[in-house]
């Protein structure tokens, strides 16, 4: 039982714990908008407002949170790992910067790319299960339909039984292709914007909550805009299951058929919902992360600066 206090006392432990708080804040704040985005991407169901009205009327408000248990259970650990890996890689890619100074923008961008690639291993199964649950009633209109799943464990068991371990990692390649560059933009935009909004804060750590919210929100928007077409393809590939007809035979086939049948606009369908969600979620993530980090480094005093060692 002595491990946890010792782990928490280290810089690495504090980055890990603060990242976990950030992940929880992000999931809770943005999950309903994520459900609307997934439904927009999967089928031509109309605007987000139209989908929202239909879901609430036919399935109840709780449907907007369907499948949240899987990402909420895992995202604390996942986001903790993301921020911990980023803290290490952002310095490893530019060792010329001293430990008392913030990492360079070059280190930030490269560290983000590496972090995104590594996190795909953890993220792919979680997003697969989440997408299957979010789209369940589009496949099984009746709530008592045979084959309807009761939760993430039910989905995971079904995938492993019918598709094996390979099935649980359906969409891994496209997830990695999406997350590596998007995380580079993500962390670079956050670090750049917080410095523009509050000059000197990268070293002093004394920016306001407003700066955290805006810089975090803009970072989330930048990361989504740069990779959105890949996310549309990923959603469509992961929505497929043995219980439904196989429409696509891979990334290129999915991209080609989607554009041919629905036009290039399909690659940006749901972007408005994704951007709105990204601003809210990532503002919450970075704010929770920064505040938790200051509390852990400064014994609860969130006004004083800190250095990431």
TrEMBL record:
Gene3D superfamilies: Mitochondrial carrier domain (1.50.40.10). One of its GO terms (cellular component) is mitochondrial membrane. It comes from the Eukaryota. Keywords: Membrane, Mitochondrion, Repeat, Transmembrane, Transmembrane helix, Transport. It holds the Pfam family Mito_carr. InterPro entries: MCP, MCP_dom_sf, MCP_transmembrane, Mitochondrial_Carrier. This is Mitochondrial arginine transporter BAC2-like. Solcar repeats lie at residues 10-92, 103-196, 207-295. Signal peptide: none annotated. GO terms for molecular function: transmembrane transporter activity. It is a multi-pass membrane protein. It is found in: Mitochondrion membrane. Belongs to the mitochondrial carrier (TC 2.A.29) family.
């Amino acid at each position: 039982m002595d491990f946890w206090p010792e782990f928490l006392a280290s810089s690495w432990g504090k980055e890990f714990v603060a990242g976990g708080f950030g992940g929880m804040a992000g999931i809770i704040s943005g999950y309903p908008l994520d459900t609307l985005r997934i439904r927009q991407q999967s089928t031509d169901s109309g605007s987000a407002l139209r989908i929202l009205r239909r879901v609430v009327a036919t399935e109840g408000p709780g449907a907007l949170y369907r499948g949240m248990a899987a990402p909420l259970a895992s995202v604390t650990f996942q986001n903790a790992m993301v921020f911990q890996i980023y803290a290490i890689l952002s310095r490893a890619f530019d060792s010329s910067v001293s430990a008392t100074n913030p990492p360079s923008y070059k280190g930030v961008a490269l560290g983000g790319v590496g972090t995104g690639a590594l996190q795909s291993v953890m993220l792919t199964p979680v997003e697969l299960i989440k997408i299957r649950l979010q789209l369940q009633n589009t496949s099984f209109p009746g709530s008592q339909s045979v084959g309807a799943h009761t939760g993430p464990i039910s989905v995971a068991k079904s995938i492993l039984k019918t598709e094996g371990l390979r099935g649980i990692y359906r969409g891994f390649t496209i997830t990695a292709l999406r997350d590596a560059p998007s995380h580079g933009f993500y962390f670079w935009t956050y670090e750049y914007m917080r410095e523009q909004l509050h000059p000197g804060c990268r070293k002093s750590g004394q920016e306001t909550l407003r700066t955290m919210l805006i810089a975090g929100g803009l970072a989330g928007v930048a990361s989504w805009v740069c990779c959105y077409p890949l996310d549309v393809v990923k959603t469509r590939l992961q929505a497929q299951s043995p219980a439904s007809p196989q429409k696509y035979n891979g990334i290129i086939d999915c991209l080609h058929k989607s554009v041919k049948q629905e036009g290039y606009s399909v690659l940006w369908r749901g972007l408005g919902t994704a951007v709105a969600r990204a601003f809210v979620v990532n503002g919450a993530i970075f704010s929770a992360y920064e505040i938790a980090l200051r509390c852990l480094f400064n014994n609860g005093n969130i006004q004083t600066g800190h250095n990431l060692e």
